[in-house]
From TrEMBL:
Keyword Lipid biosynthesis carried by entry: no
InterPro entries noted in UniProt: DHS-like_NAD/FAD-binding_dom (IPR029035), NAD-dep_sirtuin_deacylases (IPR050134), Sirtuin (IPR003000), Sirtuin_cat_small_dom_sf (IPR026591), Ssirtuin_cat_dom (IPR026590)
Protein name: protein acetyllysine N-acetyltransferase
An example molecular function term from Gene Ontology annotations: histone deacetylase activity, NAD-dependent
PROSITE patterns noted in UniProt: SIRTUIN
Sequence ranges assigned to domain Deacetylase sirtuin-type in this UniProt record: 1-255
Native organism: Bifidobacterium thermacidophilum subsp. thermacidophilum
Entries under Pfam families matching the protein: SIR2
Residues reported in the UniProt entry to bind Zn(2+): C118, C121, C142, C154
Enzyme class per UniProt: transferase
Length: 255
């Protein structure tokens, strides 16, 4: 019977792919607190200038242009080996999808920049299509034609599927994550400071269920005391190594 591993990833896995974190000492919001407004739902809904700034900022942000790093690719390898049952992430950079992990096991706790939706009729959009037209339409609105409104365009505000400040987490995301974490044989926390709730509560959920916890992070976290394994090394090197060791171990167990 192959091992079931549940994983939570945070900003640390993406900093290795060139995305600055938001809350660290050199974080985007630590240095530029005014930029938290980019993801403020009230400002976004009520002010066209704030909406235009938010879209432009997101398009120019490293989040949009980044490519998956060695650590992201290692988690694809873990999934292909049949060992990964959950990839919950606090990141909204869509790098796990870009790397090739299956949408079935990814839970975007804080949403994703990869897709967008109309806030009025809930039509879905690929963010890439919107970004490609941002010069012509700096404040994107929904072009879906509504049959029940005489085929007039909906014209609702479009926003990315990132969870903005003041919004709820995606429906069922935490419930699914908690269930799969407590059913796992191991729970790995990769590059999360475990400061942002409710995502951070997955660590104590695992510990209470008797699931061994691995925390891989450069700095300390408030849950280091419940970890069975702490790894304070460069994630781009340490995670591929851990994945290879885990796969080798699982294969020798099966023989």
């Amino acid at each position: 019977m192959s091992k079931k591993i549940a994983v939570l990833t945070g900003a640390g896995i993406s900093t290795s792919a060139g995305i600055p974190d938001f809350r660290g000492p050199d974080g985007v919001w630590t240095k530029h607190p005014e930029q938290t407004k980019v993801y403020d739902i009230d400002a976004f809904l009520t002010n066209q200038k704030d909406r235009e700034y938010s879209w432009r900022w997101q398009k120019e942000s490293p989040v949009w242009n980044a490519q998956p790093g060695a650590a992201h690719k290692a988690l694809v390898k873990l999934e292909k080996a049949g060992l990964l049952t959950l990839l919950a992430t606090q990141n909204f950079d869509a790098l796990h999808e870009k790397a090739g992990n299956s949408p079935d096991i990814i839970v975007n706790l804080h949403g994703t920049i990869g897709t967008s939706h109309c806030m009025k009729c809930h039509a879905k959009y690929d963010t890439a299509d919107i970004m490609a037209r941002l010069d012509e339409e700096p404040d994107p609105h929904c072009h879906r034609r509504l049959k029940y409104q005489g085929d007039m365009p909906c014209s609702g505000i479009i926003k990315t599927d990132v969870v903005y400040f003041g919004e709820m987490l995606p429906d069922g995301a935490m419930e699914k994550s908690m269930r799969l974490v407590s059913q796992a044989d191991e729970f790995w926390v990769i590059g999360s400071t475990l400061e942002v709730f409710p995502a951070a509560s997955l660590a104590p959920v695992a510990a209470q269920a008797g699931v061994p916890v691995t925390i891989m992070n450069m700095g300390k976290t408030q849950y280091d005391n419940i970890a069975t394994r702490l790894i304070h090394e460069d994630i781009a090197v340490a995670l591929p190594k851990l994945v290879d060791e885990t796969i080798a171990e699982a294969q020798s167990d099966e023989q």
